[in-house]
Structure to design on (186 residues):
C-alpha cells in the first residue's frame, strides 16, 4: 500500500466520505488526482479496509467508510517510521535563476504567487471559522475530537499561507533593492 492509501484511511477515521470529498480534504497537504484516489478506494474496498455505503441522493455517489480491519491496518502504518516530506515547487525553481529573468516577469511571478496564496489563505481561514463555529473557538463542543486533526492541519496551512505571503513581499522588496530596477510600476 502506498502512503496515499494510508492517508485516505486516515481521513475516513473522521467520517465517511466520497472520493470527491476526500480529494478536497487532501488538498490541505497532498496533491492527488481523482485518477489516483478512486483506484485506491477500490483497492481498499477489495482488501476489506473500507466499505461503501449508499447515500440516498439523486446522484448515487459512493460514500466510503473505514472498517475495523482498515483501522487495524492503519494503526500498523501509524506506528511505523514516517517518510521525509517531499517538496517540489516550480516557482522556486524559476526564482533560483532570478538574475536572468526579465524584471516584468519577476513581478508577474511574485503577483501570481501572492494571488495563489491569498486565495488559499481565504479558503483555509473559512474552514477554520467553520470549525470554530461548529465546535467553539476553544474546540470543546461535542464531537470535536473527530475534527481535531483536520483543525491542526488547516491551521498549519493557514499559517503557512500567511508566512508565504509575507516572504513573497520580503523577497520582492529584496529583489527591488538588490537589482535596483527602474522599470517597475510600484
Amino acid at each position: 500500500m502506498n502512503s496515499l492509501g494510508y492517508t485516505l484511511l486516515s481521513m475516513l477515521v473522521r467520517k465517511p466520505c466520497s472520493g470527491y470529498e476526500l480529494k478536497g480534504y487532501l488538498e490541505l497537504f497532498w496533491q492527488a488526482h481523482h485518477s489516483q484516489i478512486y483506484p485506491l478506494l477500490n483497492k481498499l474496498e477489495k482488501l476489506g479496509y473500507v466499505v461503501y455505503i449508499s447515500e440516498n441522493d439523486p446522484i448515487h455517489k459512493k460514500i466510503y467508510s473505514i472498517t475495523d480491519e482498515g483501522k487495524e491496518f492503519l494503526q500498523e502504518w501509524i506506528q511505523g517510521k514516517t517518510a521525509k516530506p517531499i517538496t517540489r515547487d516550480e516557482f522556486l525553481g524559476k526564482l533560483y535563476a532570478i538574475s536572468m529573468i526579465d524584471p516584468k516577469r519577476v513581478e508577474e511571478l511574485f503577483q501570481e504567487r501572492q494571488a495563489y496564496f491569498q486565495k488559499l489563505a481565504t479558503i483555509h481561514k473559512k474552514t477554520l471559522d467553520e470549525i470554530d463555529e461548529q465546535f467553539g473557538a476553544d474546540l470543546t463542543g461535542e464531537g470535536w475530537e473527530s475534527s481535531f486533526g483536520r483543525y491542526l492541519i488547516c491551521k498549519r496551512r493557514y499559517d503557512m499561507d500567511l508566512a508565504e505571503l509575507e516572504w513573497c513581499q520580503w523577497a520582492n522588496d529584496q529583489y527591488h533593492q538588490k537589482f535596483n530596477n527602474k522599470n517597475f510600476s510600484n
In short: The helical segments are 3-14, 19-26, 34-46, 68-79, 90-95, 103-135, 148-179. Residues 103-135 form the longest helix (33 residues). Strands lie at 50-54, 62-66.
